[in-house]
Amino acid sequence: MFFSISLENCTTPAEFNLVGLSDVPSLQVVLFDMFLFIYVIAIVGNVSIIFTYRYSSNLHTPMYFFLANFSFLDMCYISTTVPNILANFLSEHKTISFYGCVVQLYFLMLLGSTECYILAAMAYDRYNAICQPLLYTNIMNKESCVKYILGSWFIGVVNSIIHTTLTFTLPFCGSNMINYFFCDIPPLLNLAYTDTWINELATFVIGGFVTMGSLLLTIISYANIIVTILKIHSSSGRRKAFSTCVSHFTVVTIFYGSGIFIYLKPRSNYIMEYDRLVAIMYTVIAPLLNPFIYSLRNRDVKDAARKIIYEKMNKAKY
Fold it and tell me: Are 129 and 63 in contact (CB under 8 A)?
């Protein structure tokens, strides 16, 4: 009865106020400089991966096709949150418009869930390369790779539409202060002026299907990869096979670990102060580290980048 009476006069807020990462004025400029540096390096790093793939014919393989698409997603992912965060560091009032919040949540869900299945596709690619090398070119042909990318985007779109619709049909007629530094499902549910058990169930079930489904595919691929590697008699062969998977496995651990911590737990366990720190891992740090994880541990990428730089320098001379 309380909600039905109150909701009659409920007015959707024009904007939300964000708590941000710190309320200490002296830290705002320091945090602005730090996040701006991270953002620039992340964009440059991911653009470099895409550029290297585009202009290196020896990298035109399924593995690097997926990596270039993953780098594009990382660029979009970090750009969904960081520009608004940077603007708020320099503003006395940290805000985001209601529709800006809708768009931000939509793209966070879209890009995050799409990344989950591209990571699974990358694991499947490594499985076929190591476990079925004779059939690899037939299984991972260009048409199949494009289908995996489109399928990942389709799952991302569906997941994003469901979560965004469910979240923003809730009434927000009380406080408009989001105890977070961007618009995400957990802090918005805490702000809703009604019971949110349907949203929590949808987050757990649908989020579990998207996250755990793709993670299960990744684990199955790697379980088979490990079994195959252990059967290789040559220690150098085992080392070479394992090295092709280390970078991807590192990215999977960072991305899934932080994502599961945030989304697949009951609302009663939300502690926004801790969740903010974890959220930084998958929204900011992961897109920063991914190009370095893949490039610094990958001789093919490093050699291709050196070749491109060398050719560009020679052209500049003449």
Answer: yes
* Structure tokens that stand for 84 in this block: 């608004």
Note the pLDDT tens digit of each residue in 183-238. 988 888 888 888 888 888 887 788 778 888 888 888 898 888 888 888 877 777 67
CA angle 118, 166, 270 (to 5 degrees): 80
Q: What total of structural domains would you count in the chain?
A: 1
Residue 4 falls inside a structural domain: no
The span from the CA of 238 to the CA of 78, in Å, is 35
| Encoded tokens for 268 | 């009663």
**pTM metric for this prediction:** 0.85
Contact 260, 211 (CB under 8 A): yes
Q: Of 171, 157, 175, give the one whose Cα is nearest residue 199.
A: 171
Specify the residue for token string 């961007």. Answer: 182
Domain extent at residue 292 = 25-317
Q: Give CA–CA dist 95/117, Å, rounded.
A: 32
Smallest CA-to-CA distance from 15 within 87, 103, 98 is with: 98
Q: How far apart are CA 166 and CA 143, in angstroms?
A: 35
For position 237, what pLDDT does the model report?
Answer: 66
Residue 78 and residue 147: Cα distance in Å, rounded?
A: 25
Q: What is the CATH number of the domain that holds 273?
A: 1.20.1070.10
Q: Tell me what pLDDT residue 312 has.
A: 65
Q: Can you tell me the distance from the alpha carbon of 72 to that of 75, in angstroms, rounded to the nearest whole number? A: 5
Q: Is the dihedral of CA 20, 24, 30, 32 positive or negative?
A: positive
Indicate whether 277 belongs to any domain.
yes
Quick one: 27 exposed, middle or buried, by C-beta within 10 A (0-12, 13-18, 19+)?
Answer: middle
Give the model's pLDDT for residue 274: 66
CB atoms within 10 A of CB 68: 19
Q: Can you tell me the distance from the alpha carbon of 237 to that of 229, in angstroms, rounded to the nearest whole number?
A: 8
